[in-house]
Design a protein that fits this description.
Number of strands: 9
Oligomer: single chain
Shape: globular
Order of helices and strands: EHEHHEEEHEHHEHEHEHHH
Strand content: 15-25%
Strand order of the largest sheet: 4-3-6-1-7-8-9
Radius of gyration: 19 Å
Helix content: 25-40%
Structural class: alpha/beta
Distance between the termini: 13 Å
Length: 326
């Protein structure tokens, strides 16, 4: 059985010496709209013959091999009973349905499959994401001073509620210890619109990690930061708002206190160039609403609503998490 010696026993654990067979590994996935997830699941023929959906990726000869683990021999979505998820009241086996609303995916799908495959124990994902939220204000941690962010408080409150009531929410965990081992973070868009927020992002991110670990008495909790990746590998202009955020997100895990327990994952490498080609052209953004709908979104935001992006980003976050836990 896998053993991760992170010293993260929590107050709600049933014992301090439970064997791996008796534990559930718990991960928090938090952030704003791109952690919520806008990747469309079902194909719609009227939307470019179904392209730009997870269903299309599973069936398309060029991508089927990469996504075949999501379906069974009959092509039905696999429900993982070894990976449970709770997302703002929605709960159950991990399936492609836990994006910002049912019918969409976010990073939780790829993340859950990676950690579920790598860890022998059952896994519980607690997903806490709300669109349009900043780190400087909405998720503001106590150590940054000023008013503590309402969504920082909500994150702590809901995590504790789920962990405290997990044996009711997930009866299969009745005789198991819950062990909080890691957190994934994907956010940044709403801080880039304010230069003061940009300037403080690195400090706020470091304080956020410290404060969350302190709250849960988990000083070495593994932390994965999903770096902003809009526009893919195209270089950002030095000093631009997005450049500030990306550099801050990359800098935090380089600090000596975080080097062994935090990683920044670049998401620009998962940018959907096929979606990009549809949305852009010689005249800039396409004004064709039907083309916007190709990738499951109503406008050119949220990484074009590309399920390719969300599946790959989640996989990248999961791989980074397993690297930290090992």
């Amino acid at each position: 059985m896998t053993r991760f010696l992170l010293g993260l026993s929590l107050a709600f654990a049933t014992t301090s010496t439970a064997l791996a067979d008796d534990t559930v590994k718990v991960f928090i996935l938090a952030g704003q709209s791109n952690m919520e997830g806008h990747g469309k699941v079902d194909a719609e023929q009227k939307a470019n013959q179904g392209k730009g959906s997870l269903e299309w990726l599973v069936n398309n000869p060029g991508t089927a091999k990469q996504f075949k683990h999501l379906v069974d021999a009959k092509g039905k979505w696999i429900a993982r009973d070894d990976v449970q998820i709770w997302y703002l009241g929605r709960k159950g086996n991990l399936l492609p349905k836990y994006g910002f609303r049912e019918g969409f995916i976010g990073p939780e799908l790829g993340f859950g499959h990676v950690v579920g495959n790598a860890i022998d124990e059952p896994v519980l994902l607690i997903k806490l994401a709300w669109g349009g939220k900043s780190l400087a204000k909405d998720f503001r941690p106590p150590s940054s001073g000023g008013e503590v962010g309402p969504y920082y408080k909500e994150l702590l409150k809901l995590t504790r509620e789920v962990l405290g009531d997990a044996k009711t929410l997930f009866p299969q965990y009745t005789d198991r210890k819950l062990e909080l081992v890691g957190m994934g973070w994907h956010q940044g868009w709403n801080d880039r619109v304010n230069q003061a927020f940009n300037d403080a992002y690195e400090t706020n991110m470091a304080n956020f990690i410290r404060d969350v670990r302190k709250e849960f008495k988990a000083p070495d909790m593994a932390f994965v930061i999903g770096q902003m990746g809009n526009d893919g590998l195209k270089a950002d202009k030095d000093g631009s708002p997005r450049d500030y955020i990306k550099k801050a997100q990359a800098a935090v895990p380089e600090a000596s206190e975080f080097k062994s327990n935090a990683i920044c994952v670049r998401t620009d490498r998962f940018w959907d160039m096929e979606a990009h080609a549809i949305y852009t052209g010689p005249g800039g953004w396409s004004k064709d609403v039907d083309k916007w709908r190709q990738f499951g979104n109503d406008r050119p935001y949220h990484y074009y609503g590309s399920p390719w992006f969300f599946a790959q980003a989640g996989t990248g976050f999961g791989e980074a998490m397993i690297k930290l836990l090992k």
